[in-house]
Each structure stands twice: as structure tokens, then as C-alpha cells.
Write a structure and sequence with these properties.
single chain; alpha+beta; DNA primase, PRIM domain; 2 domains; six-stranded mixed β-sheet; three-stranded antiparallel β-sheet; 20% strand; globular
Length: 302
């Protein structure tokens, strides 16, 4: 891994007036302003992590693309880390470590920020286990809520702390904060084992099997986020939805029928933060060593 600090000419935002969310009327300037303002809250979930940018150069209705490799020479305040992919290719990821970098990537039209679950300096050791609840056809958000509660119930049985957020779209993410002592392969295998237990308990609601034919009317428990190089959208990241929704941490007491993820937006998130603060911050102080939980599960399954 190599780090980069390069001095370049001064950076300034461009085309702030361009409409990025046609239905809501939000502009590229609104995008940049959001990430500058949310910086103190979102940076702890991005700092020193490889981040994949989802860029929308002409707004959410036009073509988008994921960018891993940061090309060119970024401004001096942008820190990067070069990691070698499994195919042997070096990829230079941006590390969103400060407010200026957030403004810089927003100016690149990066609406969505998708970080790794591990730090660049320890890329194979995640500090979270993620269950991405991905709704299939003919499912509702109430089904997603039921799925999230089922995941939490199993994690409670295993004495594992959990925190939950909206994905900002149709799904939800349940995360377990880890001490980063287990490698991705071990975390993924454990997440897969729990996903199969959940699917067996709730066969009409959940599936741990990939493929559209298995997802009709069910929620897919996407355990594959728990692999090196995989990402999940960051808490407080904007999403490319008509209402400019935000992936928003929740209290478990809020996870009940009638919850509407569309109400958490670029406009409304501020009152929520003022009232509740960052709900995930205290949870991520309760990190667990997954190895002990794996031993308990193996004992119970014997």
C-alpha cells in the first residue's frame, strides 16, 4: 500500500447550478454543500478507508459509473491509498479524510460514497459485519423491516451488538461492529452461516441464495458485502433517488411497520441530527471479537 500527498493548483467547484435531481430541483451546488456540512458526521465512517465513488456527471437521470481508481493528480489535501487487487492490478483509492476531500469528490459528481469495511492500512481485516437486506420483486418495505428485526433477533441470541440504517433506497443494512481481528474470509463465512439460519427460520420471507429466481417475494440477505474489495453505501451518504434520500442510521425502536425511508433526505436530515445526533456512534464503541461468537455458534450447532 502506498499513500499519496501531492501539491497541485488550487481547487474550486464548477457548474454548481447544474440540476442533478430534476424532480426535487436540487443542484450540483446542493450536493457539494451537503457533503461539506455533513462532514463532521460522515467522516468517521470514511476516514482512512478505500472509497468507491458512484458518479453522476449529468445528474441522476443520466448515465452513472462507479470509480475505484482515482486518475490524474488530485489537490494536495486529497489522500489516496494504492492497493493491489486480486488480479494483480494496482488501484489508487481516494481516502475521504477531510471536508475538502468531500467537496472535491462532490465536485466530481460523486453522489454516493461506498467505503470498504476495513482501513487501507489493514485491508483484509473488517471492523464491521454487514447484512444487506435486498428486497426482491413483489416485496414491500414492511417486509424489509420484518427481515431486519429477524436479523436483530438472531444477533441478540448470539450476544452480538447490532445497528441498523436505511440504505437510502429499498433496502436496509444491519451491521455488527467488530474489533477487526478476523479476516474477511472468516467474517463472510460466519455471515453466510447466519444467513442460512435466518432463511431456514423464515423461509417465506428470507433467502440466502443468489439469483432472481430465488428472490421472488423474498428478501435476499446479501452476506457478500463481507469480502475484501466489496463495499456498502456509507451512513449519511446521499443516494441517486428522486427525492435525494440519505442512508440514515435508525434506532431499533423506529424499525417497525410504517417506517418510510423516503422521509430522510438532503433537506430533512439536519433536524433529525439535531434531535438525535449520530445514532451509530455509540454502537461502534461496542466492538466485539467475532472469534468468540463463532466458537459459541459452533458449540450450539453440534
Amino acid at each position: 500500500m502506498r499513500y499519496n500527498h501531492r501539491m497541485t493548483k488550487s481547487f474550486g467547484p464548477t457548474h454548481r447550478e447544474k440540476i442533478f435531481w430534476p424532480q426535487a430541483g436540487y443542484t450540483k451546488g446542493d450536493l457539494i454543500d451537503y457533503y461539506e456540512r455533513i462532514a463532521p458526521t460522515i467522516l468517521p465512517y470514511l476516514k482512512d478507508r478505500p472509497v468507491v465513488l458512484k458518479r453522476f456527471p449529468n445528474g441522476i437521470k443520466q448515465q452513472s459509473f462507479f470509480q475505484k481508481n482515482l486518475s490524474g493528480t488530485p489537490p494536495f489535501f486529497v489522500k489516496t491509498a494504492t492497493l493491489r487487487a486480486k488480479n494483480g492490478r494496482d488501484i489508487r483509492y481516494v481516502l475521504c479524510n477531510n471536508r475538502q476531500t468531500l467537496a472535491y469528490v462532490a465536485n466530481l459528481a460523486a453522489i454516493e460514497l461506498h467505503p470498504w469495511s476495513s482501513l487501507a492500512k489493514r485491508p483484509n481485516y473488517p471492523d464491521a459485519m454487514i447484512f444487506d437486506l435486498d428486497p426482491g420483486p413483489q416485496t414491500t418495505f414492511d417486509d424489509v423491516i420484518e427481515a431486519a428485526c429477524a436479523v436483530r433477533a438472531l444477533l441478540d441470541e448470539l450476544r452480538l451488538p447490532s445497528c441498523v440504517k436505511t440504505s437510502g433506497k429499498r433496502g436496509m443494512h444491519v451491521s455488527v461492529p467488530l474489533t477487526a481481528k478476523s479476516e474477511y474470509d472468516d467474517v463472510r463465512r460466519y455471515a453466510l452461516a447466519l444467513s442460512h439460519i435466518l432463511a431456514a427460520r423464515h423461509p417465506q420471507l428470507l433467502t440466502a441464495t443468489r439469483g432472481e429466481e430465488h428472490r421472488l417475494g423474498k428478501i435476499f440477505i446479501d452476506y457478500l458485502r463481507n469480502a475484501e474489495g466489496q463495499t456498502a453505501v456509507a451512513p449519511y451518504s446521499l443516494r441517486a433517488t428522486s427525492g435525494a434520500t440519505v442512508s440514515t442510521p435508525l434506532e431499533w425502536s423506529e424499525v417497525k411497520k410504517g417506517l418510510d425511508p423516503a422521509k430522510f433526505t438532503i433537506k430533512t436530515i439536519w433536524k433529525r441530527l439535531e434531535k438525535k445526533g449520530d445514532l451509530w456512534h455509540p454502537m461502534f464503541e461496542k466492538k466485539v471479537d467475532l472469534k468468540e461468537s463463532i466458537r459459541r455458534l459452533q458449540k450450539e450447532l453440534r
